User: Fold these one by one.
Assistant:
Number 1:
Amino acid sequence: MPTRSIIEPFRIKSVEPIRMTTRLEREHFLEDAGYNPFLLRAENVLIDLLTDSGTGAMSAEQWAAIMRGDESYAGATSYYRFAEAVKGIFGFRYVLPTHQGRAAERILFTTVCKPGDIVPNNTHFDTTRANIEYVGAQAIDLPIAEGLQPELLHPFKGNMDVDALEALIADVGAERIPLVMLTITNNSGGGQPVSMANVKAVSSVCKRHGLPLYIDACRFAENAWFIREREMGYAQMSARDIARELFSYADGCTMSAKKDGLVNIGGFLATNDEGLSRQESRLLVLTEGFPTYGGLAGRDLEAIAVGLNEVLDEDYLRYRIASTAYLGRHLSDIGIPIVQPPGGHAIYIDAAAMLPHIPPEMFPGQALVGEMYLEGGVRAVEIGTVMFGSTNAETGEIRTAALELVRLAIPRRVYTQSHIDYVCEVMSDVFAGRKRIGGLRMVWQDPPLRHFTARFAPAR
Ligand code: F0G
């Protein structure tokens, strides 16, 4: 067989126009938005790489399932179809639907954590960390050292540092740790995968100390594909079987179905512990709804049931990972420094390395994101000092983040290769003019999640 291009394994049945704007218009829009792309109107964005969360396209089968949605308040058929799909892949006995991932996080941590507790993770996503801190517990990141070096190649940069986990348990005592978490793929660490060997090693440490292991499963299918491609012994296994094995080492999971559930809204919280699930469902009723719908419509549950199975399709995953790598390869070829190797759902540009003339206190990532919008109407997100740093309210002193990254997240099944080629052309022009890009100062902020609403002005 000749080697052929990896193509989009779908054809398009319904289209949504995207709008070209002029540079002059974009200058006005960006200024009105305080140089923060979160504050732009989406209709003024041409290619939207802000997030891969809830921005994917559903399949004809999912839309068909939506028509089958059973909207009964209790015991809907759609719930049973959803629960069966989740159990078939994840294997956990008890599953509660939630309106999205952070709702599952809130219910889990409110139930298992008390003030003073400690939750280790390879790297917490920001809502996970915020929900842990909200109940007075502490979120600790334990990535492997390789995970913190953007240009370094390593097949599983998302792994947890198992020795650091052992040391932490020895240091604080297992009684203060209600659970250990692994985020697959590691979003805040560059969309990098976790190996099966690492999951097994973390699981065995947890078992030895009697600690439950939870998986933040948002991008579980992408992680399964990386295991198949990169880890010895998995090349012949289906993504479904890899996922089943991976979850068999865990005691429960939180899930934002807005990623690898291939839907626009939804999530769930799963466990093998009956008593815990009963406690969680009491809380679920308070804010989400009855346990068989959990804040979702019956039709949403149907779409998730179909999406969870579609996402494990081999052709889909091969295309998905190849298309992210395609963007990464082209940006690298231009000379743009990116986190290597490319992750599953996004490419992360090292803005500090690309714009060394802009100090972290002048937000190089935010400056780059603004320039990408001005140059070609492309929207991305800063993951650096705006998102993770802080400003001392009295002294004005800025605490900077460890890395100044810009994330180009790729929505699932939405953009074609020529859209991505266009993004590369825009980035090539941005790169050519990089020395002219100026820094920013923050003129308004509302911590702790200041990146959503902060406003900026040119620093000069
Ligand atoms: N965990 C991870 C690893 C995530 O990436 C996200 C969301 C969540 C939990 C929360 O899920 O949004 O459904 O409440 N990440 C999105 C992003 C927002 O852009 O990366 P949610």
Number 2:
Amino acid sequence: MEMNRRNICIIAHVDHGKTTLVDYLLRQAGTFQEHQSLQDRVMDSMDLERERGITILAKNTSIHVGDTKINVVDTPGHADFGGEVERILGMVDGAILLIDAAEGPLPQTRFVLQKALAQGHKVILVVNKVDRPECRGTGRIQEVVNMAFDLFIELGASEEQANFPIVYACSRQGWCTMDEADIDPILEGKKKADLKPLFDLILEQIPPPRVKLDGDFQMLVSNLSYSDYVGRLAIGRVSSGVVRKGTRIFRQGIKPDGQPLKEGFSVSELFTYEGLKQVPIDQLEAGEIGIVAGLETFEI
Ligand code: GDP
């Protein structure tokens, strides 16, 4: 069953522009009003969470494009979280590798990229900050693309993965282009551009979640959080079936002695991501990334 949904993550070294890119993706998808800055919105959503007593650690975001929902799962940029990286990458079907055009790929993103490639994810390369003076007329951008290619090969990318689509972006101005020759005309104001090429690439190149809507409900818990009102929260991607509020389901795990564990509980609350917020919903279906409450002993 194909869903109108894409689950992706953005792999980026800190400061290469992930927040700025997500901000403009949200704005241009019309999820938010133009005049608010991302900072305001992040604050807004944190206040809202505080009001509801929900604090969710992973800053997942969702963006609606037409009738498709793109979930952007937050990824730690560095290698300190071995198991966490694999779990997070298990929630997505593809990734954006965002690289500062002046700095090039930095070693800290290698680990996450390697894990993404090993999971078979298709990766879109976004060369960001193409407006930086170091990149103009210096051949630097092509150099960075070549470095990225070498890195993919070194990390064991398949032929298809190494043949990655590329966009050249100036996130801070909210645009990107697939044609390197367009960078100067856009920067000089002779051509107009926005982030549509990246939206299109995500929709075309990243596959929708492959899931079974009609199977039994199954969700792989990838992260945990806590709410003062509803208690412990399990965050993850639903791999099959549908769950509704009030339904009785089981947590399956492993006991300390290695025996299988099966613990029944009723779903008290369900949430999904809308923009930067977590919103309550009545049902959560296969392919979606969401949050389940109702058990105090959730574990990853
Ligand atoms: P993050 O740490 O990856 O989330 O990076 P931010 O989005 O916070 O951006 C880091 C810095 O780079 C900020 O000062 C941004 O304004 C700046 N920045 C982001 N995108 C661009 C760009 O396209 N061009 C330039 N010149 N600066 C950018």
Number 3:
Amino acid sequence: MRKAFVIGHPIAHSRSPMIHGHWLEVLAIDGCYERIDVAPGDLANFVRQFRERGFAGGNVTIPHKEATLVLADRLDEAAELIGAVNTLWLDDDLIHGGNTDAIGFSANLDAAAYQWRDAESALVLGAGGAARAVVHALVQAGIRDIRLVNRTVMRAQELADRFGAGISAHGWHEVAELSRDAALVVNTTSLGMHGDGGSLMDVALLPDHAIVTDIVYVPLRTPLLAEAAARGLRTVDGLGMLLHQAVPGFERWFGHRPVVTTALRDIVVADLERHG
Ligand code: ATR
């Protein structure tokens, strides 16, 4: 039986077991996917010894994504660029660490609003860990004008420098000006609402063809998405990113490429409605 894990601390909230469990069931694979709480002090031992415990690999979540970088024998390009590992697998007896968040972000938009790839400019709200994966995906998609807006402008500047030309760093006071020709807006901050209780941005300023997406999926319909939809803009929620980022790991551990279906989405949505 093939075995995979998700490690984090705490880990009870993770929805990954639901996703991989569903795929194991529909594909009738003799395998299991276990949730394991690993304290920071135990991370190195866990990563070095999962093979001996019979695991083919697994997912890594908060707070271990950055620390796992130095524990893998090999990193894929995305993990290196994003600076975090979310997937581990074995190959040639080596422990490989990868990051599938950018793939998940792109696949979600491909499925829901494929025109996003034609966007000439993108406005990214936030410059934390999640924003790094989003910027990597936008650069990979060939979007040449990426504007990062963050409370701490220095952090946005560091992110811009990390990914090179075509990326600019801004403070929130510039968001109105930057909105006028933004073809794609991505919220990567955890803010449902911004600071003083006002909206994150004024969606009325966006062009009519703008696509608005949020990587937050609790709630599924964030205030930004609700405002954008009310304004008649195309919106994409963040749940698809969670589902799509899980695909490459499952394929590596269990040897079958799973499909993100409406049935899977419905299962996770029902769980979100029950537990938030
Ligand atoms: P994640 O890995 O989810 O991206 P993070 O690295 O802590 O988490 O980043 C959180 C993001 O939300 C950052 O862009 C942060 O802005 P700062 O870099 O200025 O801290 C943004 N954020 C969080 N709380 C905020 C707040 N109250 N007002 C404005 N921005 C906020």
